[in-house]
Amino acid sequence: MSQSYNFKVVYEKSHDGKYRAWVPALPACQAKGDTMPITESLIEEAIHCYCQNMLENGAAIPQTPPGLPSIVNEIEISLDTN
Questions:
Q1: What DSSP character marks residue 28?
Q2: Which of 6, 12, 3, 17 has its CA nearest to residue 47?
Q3: Low-confidence spans in the chain with pLDDT less than 70
Q4: Among candidate residues 20, 19, 29, the one with its CA nearest the CA of residue 64
């Protein structure tokens, strides 16, 4: 029997021009690729492997309910450099 799971994935273009992706609900589940489509494929594979490992070890999979809004924002801070 197969069950579907939903996850939010965050994508970011790195300073080197490559793309990074990570899954906030799955710590350390990350991927990096030269293009967005490659990165999407890599993170999907990483999520699958990560979750399969969790199931094989009896762990619950912390998924994100579908349809919840996401907010991504940049915050600038200033630090004293004495």
A1: T
A2: 6
A3: none
A4: 29
